[in-house]
Amino acid sequence: MATTERHDGNKPLVLIVPGLNNSGPRHWQTLWEREHGDCERVDLGMWDQPHRNTWVNKLNAAIHASSRPVILVAHSLGCHAVAWWNALERPAADGKVLGALLVAPPQVEGPEIDARIAGFAPVVRQRLPFTSILAASQNDRYITFGQAKRLARIWGSRLVDVGPLGHINADSGIGDWPYGRYLLERLAAAVAPRRVPLLAGRNADLLTARATRLEIGR
What we know:
The protein is α/β, with parallel strands linked by helices. It has helices at residues 28-35, 52-65, 77-89, 115-118, 145-155, 178-191; strands spanning 13-17, 39-41, 70-75, 97-103, 131-136, 158-161, 193-197, 206-210.
């Protein structure tokens, strides 16, 4: 499960969902967790021999343990864990998860796939019910850009080309990945609750709704 939340308030909790072998000390996910009080890592366990349903159950427990709305930030195999969580738990569109940033999901289908991630096959072909961004690199050794584009289409995610960044990890030399933080900020702004008047007029009652317009630029 995620560690103890560091502050209260209405700001969403960012749940970090790492991939195979966890995210090491130089990985942007680790740096975000260290530098930003709104981030907590989900301890999926079995990092070197992941088990799909175990990861889904631990992710589900972390989401429900949060006292605040949640934005998921997944890397690599963690993206497929989010997709399987959606397929198995069937969360409502107005549920606790507001959105997801999915970064560098690998290919999990095919004859030459690492046996440790093949257990997450087949690709979940179910649209995510919340707003999501899929960030993909042009030269990721674990998936082609065309395959990543297909995943974005299947999951209903906004595809963002981040350029030639490999697997978008510590080896990519991106430090705390400022552009990734920008994508998270745009996602958070798009799904933030807003107050909408039910009736026109100075004393109109108000209804809380979610903004879903996602604007991304460079």
